[in-house]
TrEMBL record:
Pfam families found in the cross-reference section: DUF6597 (PF20240), HTH_18 (PF12833)
GO molecular function: DNA-binding transcription factor activity; sequence-specific DNA binding
Family annotation (InterPro entries): AraC_XylS_family_regulators, DUF6597, Homeodomain-like_sf, HTH_AraC
Domain HTH araC/xylS-type: 171-255
Protein keywords: DNA-binding, Transcription, Transcription regulation
PROSITE patterns per UniProt: HTH_ARAC_FAMILY_2
Name assigned to this protein: Helix-turn-helix domain-containing protein
UniProt keyword annotation of Transcription present: yes
Organism whose genome encodes this protein: Deinococcus arboris
UniProt entry tagged with the keyword Transport: no
Amino acid sequence: MYLEVPPHVRLRPLVRTYWQIEEFHAPGQEEHRFMPERTVRLTFFSGDSWQSGAAHSDALDRLPGATLTGMWLAPRRLVSVGLTRALGVELYPWGARQLFGWSMAMQGLDLAPVSAPVSRAIPALLRAGAWAEAREVLDDWLLERLATHEQALGVAVQAASALYTSLGTARIGTLAEELNVSPRQLERGFAQEVGVNAKTLARLIRFEEAHNRLYVNPDEGLAGLAYDLGFADQAHLTREFRTMAHMTPRAFAAYARQMAHPHDALAPVTPVVAVPLP
């Protein structure tokens, strides 16, 4: 079961969506590979899962009940057993920075020290299957943090929003000119307001869009995809895709054709490669 739910209206400039997912992994374990994403993910979790710092790492750490992660540049592994439930928030990077002080340098944040009561309450509600109550607690907590940390959204956030709208193809020089600031001023603004530089954000937006489109339509032509997303050519798309996905677009498309993933509704937003472990 996968479902997206809009956040409270006051949170929408900072939050793209809430999502909730319930899976039962039987028999045994299931391994997921999460590709790099263009948003920062706040996740509350109930169940037995372990995560790695990199897709090919053998080391696994138990997934905390509440974490803030995202905008990494390589795949990550997640291994789950039995029934798992998760309630997540897709934050724009400036939202994660404003609410939690996030920056690209943060690999992950266990939220228990930030807010122990919420870190315990929401997973407990998920264990009980009380989704609406969990979302209500989440709304109240984020609105409380917004009231404490809210700042005016500056020109760097306007530029970052334009990158999302253009699927990462907008040029920083053009955006700076349109916003009446120098490119150097705009880059400083990205560091201060967005938490990630413009080039990296554009790369992540373009990669996730390419990945999503190939997941939905593995037969999509790579030359046309490269053109649509502003890559210099198909070879440029292939190099960038291999760097972030650890496989070529053709290899991923071939694999996507074979997948019988049980949560295809998740694909347009956050594709997941699911492979049963031996």
